[in-house]
Design a protein that fits this description.
Blueprint (H helix, E strand, L loop, with lengths): L2 H4 L9 H5 L5 H8 L5 H10 L1 H8 L1 H13 L3 E8 L8 E2 L1 E8 L13 E7 L7 E2 L2 E6 L2 E6 L4 E5 L4 E4 L15 E6 L4 E14 L6 E11 L6 E2 L13 E3 L2 E5 L10 E6 L4 E6 L12 E5 L2 E7 L5 E7 L7 E8 L11 E7 L2 E6 L3 E6 L5 E6 H4 L10 E8 L12
Antiparallel strand pairs: 1-3, 1-26, 2-5, 3-4, 6-7, 7-8, 8-9, 10-11, 11-12, 12-13, 14-15, 15-16, 16-17, 18-19, 19-20, 20-21, 22-23, 23-24, 24-25
Helix pairs in contact: 4-5
Length: 409
């Protein structure tokens, strides 16, 4: 082979780290070292050795990598979308993900910067993604509900983006995307859940709601939605949360028997039950919010124009669930959080709160004091010629090798 031909050979260089580990036993190297590495490094190592490639693709390795990722600090995944009411139903040909790392400790956040992670074209069979969306995350997968009843699932790390088959039509004209994503440990399945209204009418004279509601789930790797039992109440626009094997949905406050409960759908039993809301709960559109804060189901409710309570549910699965006041938050000024006040993560006695789809704040749980963390409008570079208002959706995020189309876990 002449020198000219050698210049065109494409050889993946072996990283010094990998060379240093070649004398380690394979089990130690793969299960204790490779499994802790970022996915971008694993994709390089797959090109180096056929045996490493097979190991990284193994379901056991994917699970172990997921477990290490779960134990670490998450990043914040940020999804900007055009946010004016007139543009909610307009379709976009792509979706963009930004990442905001938390860092090694919660005290290093000021050193981190928002970075573009992925710009992904919409699958051609979907024709586009509506500007108004709702994202739900689980183990590095992100389910994205749109207002035209389409559901997308993405793994931003592996760049896999899939549109699910259409589920049952929701007849409401004005609606919030109604999906949630979770993991069924009893069946080793990732599951998307959604509710839908087959009939929906509010009597303007007395405020009573007449409705027919249904609920269905989609198992990732499957090919169709499965109907479940109907919810025991009228599910409202409160953002759902998945934790400890169940989806939690908030109910509308039109009727007395519905205004003080959450409905819970267990993936193990595939059944609904009801959970009481915190004491003194009252329905407030676009203010209440459910959140998983360090493994506890929490509920945010405004008690005045400037004060919010964060309630925490204590549920051991045996005794009747009980709510306790976790903390009280006094925002920085009047009107802050009017559009949305969404806790997204908690650790070290502080909560990260996404406010009005524009900024992230630190909130100290003891004092209730809020400190601005990042202005997403300033940090994320959208089209400079675009004068549109943007919503910046934020969810916790971790890296994952989990596939959407096939069960590799």
């Amino acid at each position: 082979m002449d020198s000219h031909s050698r210049k065109h050979l494409s050889i993946t260089p072996i990283p010094p780290f990998a060379i240093a580990c070649t004398n380690l036993p394979d089990d130690l190297f793969i299960w204790e070292i490779l499994a802790r590495l970022p996915v971008k490094h694993l994709l390089i190592y797959k090109e180096i050795s056929p045996s490493w490639c097979a190991a990284i693709d193994d379901a056991g390795f994917v699970r172990r990598h997921r477990d290490f990722s779960r134990a670490g600090l998450p990043s914040m995944l940020i999804i900007p979308r055009k946010g004016s009411f007139e543009e909610d139903f307009e379709l976009s040909e792509d979706i963009i993900f930004h990442r905001f790392p938390i860092g090694r400790t919660v005290d290093t956040l000021e050193e981190e910067k928002v970075e573009l992670m992925l710009e992904k074209a919409c699958p051609p069979e979907a024709e586009g993604i509506t500007n108004k969306i709702f994202p739900s995350n689980c183990d590095g997968l992100v389910a994205i509900g749109s207002v035209d009843d389409k559901v997308f699932v993405c793994n931003p790390t592996t760049q896999e983006l899939v549109v699910l088959p259409l589920g049952t039509l929701d007849v409401r004209i004005i609606k919030e995307p109604s999906i949630a994503l979770g993991f069924d440990t009893s069946r080793n399945q990732y599951v998307v859940a959604r509710y839908f209204y087959q009939w929906y009418n509010v009597d303007e004279s007395n405020g009573e709601l007449d409705y027919e509601i249904g609920h269905e789930i989609f198992i990732l790797g499957g090919d169709s939605w499965e109907l479940t039992d109907d919810p025991p109440g009228a599910i409202g626009n409160t953002r759902p949360v998945f934790m400890q094997g169940s989806f939690y949905w908030g109910t509308y406050g039109f009727d007395d028997h519905q205004s003080g409960v959450l409905v819970r759908f267990s993936l193990r039993d595939r059944k609904f039950d009801m959970v009481p809301c915190p004491p003194g709960f009252s329905y407030h559109y676009n203010v209440e919010h459910l959140a998983d804060l360090d493994g506890k189901l929490c509920y945010v409710n405004n008690i005045s124009e400037t004060t919010l309570d964060v309630w925490q549910l204590d549920d051991d699965g045996i005794q009747q669930p009980k709510w306790s006041l976790r903390c009280r938050i006094d925002p920085l000024g009047d009107g802050l959080g009017v559009d949305a006040f969404l806790p997204v993560w908690a650790g070290g006695g502080r909560i990260i709160v996404a406010v009005d789809y524009e900024k992230l704040y630190w909130c100290d749980e003891k004092s209730g004091y809020m400190e601005e963390l990042v202005d997403l409008e300033e940090e994320i570079d959208v089209d400079p010629d675009d004068c549109n208002y943007y919503r910046y959706h934020v969810v916790p995020y971790m890296e994952s090798l989990i596939s959407i189309r096939v069960c590799n876990h």
